[in-house]
């Protein structure tokens, strides 16, 4: 399993517009073979932070989906990013 997690920073007054521009990406990702979960969401405390969480069956599934990355418009709105991919060998449920 591959987990992609981290956050993006955008101007606080741009966050809602940025998130709205991500709806189609989330829908597309969730319908992609190998996608276990995909979320892009507003942080509850920091008005400029957008949290990223993705879970994929394999690296090849991530790479097949990823393509060129964010659109030019989305890329221009990102002030900074701290996102990483993690290869996970095992997991256990907590519920």
Structure description:
This protein has 95 residues and is an alpha+beta fold. The chain is built from 4 helices and 4 strands. The chain has helices at 15-21, 23-30, 59-66, 72-77, and strands spanning 2-9, 35-42, 49-56, 80-87. A 4-stranded antiparallel β-sheet has the order 2-3-1-4. Strand 2 and strand 3 form a beta hairpin.
Show the helix and strand layout.
Layout: E1 2-9, H1 15-21, H2 23-30, E2 35-42, E3 49-56, H3 59-66, H4 72-77, E4 80-87
Roughly how many Å apart are the termini?
19 Å
Q: What is the CA-based Rg, rounded?
A: 14 Å
Content-based structural category: alpha+beta
Number of strands: 4
Shape: globular
Helix content: 25-40%
Work out the helix count: 4
- The H/E string reads EHHEEHHE
Largest sheet properties: 4 strands, antiparallel
Instruction: Bin the strand percentage.
Output: 25-35%
Record the strand order, biggest sheet: 2-3-1-4
Q: Which parts are unreliable, with pLDDT below 50 for 5 consecutive residues or more?
A: none
Average pLDDT score: 91
């Amino acid at each position: 399993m591959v987990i992609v997690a981290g956050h993006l920073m955008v101007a606080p007054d741009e966050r809602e517009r940025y998130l709205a521009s991500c709806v189609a990406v989330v829908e597309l990702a969730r319908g992609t073979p190998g996608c276990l979960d995909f979320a892009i969401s507003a942080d509850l405390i920091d008005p400029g932070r957008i949290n990223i969480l993705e879970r994929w069956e394999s690296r090849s599934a991530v790479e097949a989906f990823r393509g060129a990355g964010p659109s030019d418009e989305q890329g221009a709105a990102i002030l900074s990013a701290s996102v990483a991919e993690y290869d996970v060998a095992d997991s256990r449920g907590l519920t």
